[in-house]
Design a protein that fits this description.
Blueprint lengths: L2 H12 L13 H4 L7 E6 L4 E5 L5 E2 L4 H13 L22 H5 L10 H15 L2 H13 L8 H9 L2 H12 L7 H13 L1 E2 L1 H7 L1 H4 L13 H14 L5 H7 L4 E3 L4 E6 L3 E6 L10 H14 L5
Antiparallel strand pairs: 1-2, 1-7, 3-4, 5-6, 6-7
Helix pairs in contact: 1-14, 3-5, 3-6, 3-12, 5-8, 5-9, 6-9, 6-10, 7-9, 8-9
The structure holds glutamine.
C-alpha cells in the first residue's frame, strides 16, 4: 500500500469539510483553535508513520485518552474481567456526558468510552498504579517515541473550572459504591489525561499496539491478542458516542474520537490512523475527520466489514 498517495487523496477529499461544524467551546482553552485545521497520519505495524497536512501539530487528545486508560487497566490488572463488573460494553445511545442511564443501572456506566465509564476506568488505573495520569503520559511518550509529550495545564485547569458535570457523574457513581478513590482525585486524573497534547503522528504511533494485536512499539507484549481485539470491538460499538452506528456504517473501523477534533482508527493487522480537524458535529465527532476515514476505507477496501 502506498500510504502517502492514499493519504494525499484522502486529504484532498476531506479538506473541504474542514471548517464545517463547531469547535468545542465548553472550555475557553479549546475554543481558540481554528476550525479549518486538518491533518491525517497513518502508522503501519512496523511503526513507519506517514502524514499529510497538519499531522505534526499537537492538539488536545480529550476522549481519545479513554482508549489508553482502558488498555492500561487491562495491562496492569492482568485479567480482562475485573473492570467489566463495574462498566458495561454496550453503546449508550446518549450523549458522552449524560447522567440519565446511571440511575436505572445502579451507577454502572454503559461503556468505558463515555465520561462516566472513563471515570470508573481512571479510578481503577489510579488504584492499580497510584498515579493514573502520569502512568498514561509515560506510556504515551514511550509508544509515540516523543519524549516531549506533556499535559496542557491551561486545558486541565479550564476543565476543572467548568467541571460540574463530570464531578456530578463522579459523586453519583460513588453513591452506588462504584468508585474506589475520592471523587476529586479521580476527576483530577481524568482531566489531566484529557489535557495531553499530541499530534496525529504521535497518536497514530501510540495506538500501534491495537493494530499489532497487543504488541508494543518495542515488540514487548502489552495485552493478549484477545484483549486488543476486545478494545477494538468496544471502540467500534462505543468509540464515537451516540454516533457509533453511523460510524460503523460509514467507516467500518474501530475508532475513538475526542472533542479536540481528533479521531484514532484501527485496521487490525495493518495500521493505526489518526485524523484531526477541530470542527465537530452535534455528537462531538470531527466532521472532516469522519469524512476522511470514510474515504480511506472506500479507497483501500480496509473496512473490517
Ligand atoms: N474533557 C472532555 C469532558 O470530559 C472530554 C469529552 C470528549 O472528548 N468527548 O467533557
Amino acid at each position: 500500500m502506498d500510504y502517502q498517495a492514499v493519504l494525499e487523496e484522502v486529504a484532498a477529499y476531506a479538506r473541504p469539510y474542514a471548517g464545517q461544524g463547531q469547535v468545542a467551546d465548553y472550555i475557553p482553552a479549546l475554543e481558540r483553535v481554528a476550525a479549518d485545521r486538518f491533518g491525517i497520519a497513518v502508522a503501519d505495524i512496523n511503526g513507519e508513520v506517514y502524514g499529510v497536512g497538519d499531522w505534526e501539530t499537537p492538539f488536545s487528545v480529550q476522549s481519545i485518552s479513554k482508549t489508553f486508560s482502558l488498555a492500561l487497566v487491562m495491562a496492569h490488572s492482568g485479567t480482562t474481567e475485573d473492570i467489566w463488573s463495574r462498566v458495561g460494553r454496550e453503546p449508550s445511545g446518549t450523549p458522552f456526558n449524560s447522567l440519565v442511564q446511571l440511575e436505572w443501572e445502579n451507577g454502572i456506566p454503559r461503556n468505558p468510552f463515555i465520561n462516566s465509564g472513563a471515570l470508573v476506568v481512571t479510578d481503577r488505573l489510579q488504584t492499580l498504579t497510584g498515579d493514573a495520569s502520569t502512568t498514561m503520559l509515560h506510556f504515551l511518550r514511550e509508544e509515540s517515541g516523543n519524549p516531549d509529550l506533556a499535559f496542557d495545564q491551561a486545558v486541565a485547569g479550564s476543565e476543572a473550572e467548568h467541571g460540574d458535570r463530570n464531578t456530578a457523574l463522579g459523586y453519583f457513581m460513588s453513591s452506588f459504591g462504584n468508585l474506589e478513590n475520592p471523587v476529586p482525585s479521580v476527576i483530577e486524573h481524568y482531566f489531566w489525561q484529557c489535557s495531553i497534547e499530541m499530534s496525529c503522528r504521535d497518536l497514530a504511533a501510540a495506538g500501534g499496539f491495537l493494530a499489532r494485536h497487543g504488541l508494543r512499539a518495542d515488540g514487548s507484549r502489552l495485552l493478549e491478542a484477545r484483549e486488543a481485539k476486545r478494545i477494538n470491538a468496544v471502540m467500534l460499538t462505543c468509540g464515537t458516542y451516540d454516533a457509533a452506528g453511523e460510524f460503523a456504517y460509514r467507516v467500518g473501523l474501530p475508532a475513538k474520537s475526542g472533542v479536540g477534533g481528533g479521531i484514532i482508527a484501527v485496521v487490525p493487522g495493518r495500521c493505526t490512523l489518526c485524523v484531526w480537524s477541530p470542527g465537530l458535529d452535534a455528537r462531538g465527532n470531527s466532521v472532516a475527520g469522519a469524512a476522511a476515514l470514510d474515504h480511506f476505507t472506500t479507497l483501500t477496501g480496509w473496512s473490517v466489514f
